[in-house]
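Sequence in, structure out.
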Amino acid sequence: MNICVFCSAYSLDDRYSAPAAEFARLLGEGGHTLVWGGSDAGLMGLLADGVKAAGGKLVGILVEMLRHKGYVGADELVVARDLAERKAELVSRADAIVVLVGGMGTMDEFTEVLELKKHGMFEKPVVVLDTEGFYTGLRTQLERMDAEGFLPRPLADLVTFADTPAEVFAQLKA
């Protein structure tokens, strides 16, 4: 399976990096391919290192302005002109999307995928790994949108949440 991961390019403390490393190990050991932002920085680099060490494949999609942060040793590294092209390439290669902790870029990618799913333009699984309750507020807001009629499809059709890396893979298999 090509698993596209949205996550931070910043180095984070162990409460966030340890679950990401566990997720990477499970992805690689499962024989999956990581499709990600292609960076060697922060959580992105940790994820790529873990997947590679566990035997998985790496497909990075970089944006031109970040070419200098490209992960050396990726099985494939694509350089997109801009962020819009990068997001489209990430999504087109995904059999599933997993969201790990991240900032504004991660939110941008995640909400675009939800919008695509809302309109039936992307029908593959999207799972958020809610490490340390990082996405509790987002989940609450999405549940309110669902309850108050702001979503044309049930929230469960758009995204699911998991508390551990193992739960992510259990949901992807379901």
